Amino acid sequence: MRGTSRALGQFSSTLFLLLLSVQLVLAQATDCPAYVNQAVNEASQTCGTMGRNQVCYGNSSIVSQFDPSAVGVHFSIPGDRASVLNLERLVTAPLQPDTNTWGIALMSLQANLPDNLPGQNATFIILGDTELKPDPSASADYKAPMQAFSLTTHIGGLSCGDVPESGVLVQAPENTTVNFMINGVEVNVGSSALIEDDTDNLTVSTIEGFVQVTSNGATEVAGEGLNVQVPRGQRPHQAAIERSARVRNAPWRLLPRQVAALPPPPDGQIVKLEDCFYPRTRGAAQNPVLVKAGEPVVLRLSIPHDSLPRARIIQQQARQRLLVNGIQQPIYTRIGPWRGQSGEYGSHYGIEFYWLLAPPQPGDLHVVLQTQSLDGQPIYTGIDGPDPDNLPDVIPAQMSRFCLIQAGV
């Protein structure tokens, strides 16, 4: 009789979750983006501020398994929380536009962060058809709760407002790097990123900062606006520019530090500013760069550097202001740090900045780049540029460079 009651209780819990997965019928499939916003808002409201090493039931149907010895630990309704110490398996519901189902769960993890920073944790947003299980076989370097886990995400071919069907959004606290072992791949997160795995490849798409992945003895870095794929048990591929709308439209606002995905570099005639800049207008006038009138112009600035710590300093401390014929131009996007197309920076890294100019009329474009160090100190890149001094380049506390672009027919 006792076993029958337990079975009935388990059946009731399962039935409750199945009913919950279809109760948020807010609109038809054509209104799926509205439902996605509703799901994200509900997850944000129900989970709110989380304690260290907690998992929270965010929205819609979730299948969870906890340590049987942890009495009373279970998920029933959005907002329920539990310790990840007791978590054995977590599966969020796939995106189903017809029933407005899209499972979301949140985790707050310590990983390798020190104990004296209790308010700082890595944040995970698990969404869509995604499954996580702790990996007890990982090395001693990954023994914090859920610091090592297996991840599976499924793509069913559904379309819903160009949002990701499944995956894990992860964000490290500002100015920190957190380490994880995911499907046997070492993942060092100093940023905000989307992580997916389709059983063949682990894919990391970076939105802010950088992610460093190591597999089969090789390491690759994916900075802002890039992704890197790691085939199962193999070396990672070289980072590539991320052009997927679903990555840009992921629910990044659920993360504690607000970020937004930047667009990929634009198309147009590319002018490499580092090749045409001069310290004075006279040098620029004597060495103009020629472009075609009537076609868009893309201004590209690369700053090579020798390490990821320097990349973080450049991102946080250097500010660029670009003027064309005296008018300030808004930056279109930036990417990096990365090794560039075809290993452009060799064993080093580069951050790239892009400005897009409307198709110019025939005539001259006077370009001025003003660079400023926010702390008033020069920034050392550690890389010797093309100048003849054989010394590592330095970004001065304040600097202006000039380039003349001539648009002709």
> Regions with pLDDT < 50 over 5+ consecutive residues?
1-30
From the N-terminal CA to the C-terminal CA, the straight-line distance is 90 Å
CATH topology of the largest domain: Jelly Rolls
Largest sheet: 15 strands, mixed
The CATH architecture category of the largest domain equals Sandwich
Look at the structure and give the mean pLDDT.
86
**Helix- and strand-based class?**
alpha+beta
Shape from CA axes?
Answer: elongated
- Into which percentage range does the β-strand content fall? 35-45%
Radius of gyration from the alpha-carbon trace, in angstroms? 25 Å
CATH class of the largest domain: Mainly Beta
> Could you give the count of β-strands?
26
Count of distinct structural domains: 2
Give a verbal description of the structure:
This protein is α+β, with helices and mostly antiparallel strands. The chain folds into two domains: 243 residues, Jelly Rolls (Sandwich); 140 residues, Immunoglobulin-like, CATH 2.60.40. The protein is 15% helix and 40% strand. It has six helices and 26 strands. The chain has a 15-stranded mixed β-sheet that branches. A five-stranded mixed β-sheet has the order 17-26-23-19-20. The protein has a four-stranded mixed β-sheet with strand order 16-18-22-21. A hairpin with a 2-residue loop joins strand 10 and strand 11. The N and C termini lie far apart (90 Å). The relative contact order is 0.09. The N terminus is likely disordered.
Summary of the model, kept short:
With 409 residues, this protein is of the alpha+beta class. It has two domains: 12-254, Jelly Rolls (Sandwich); 269-408, Immunoglobulin-like, CATH 2.60.40. The chain contains six helices and 26 strands.
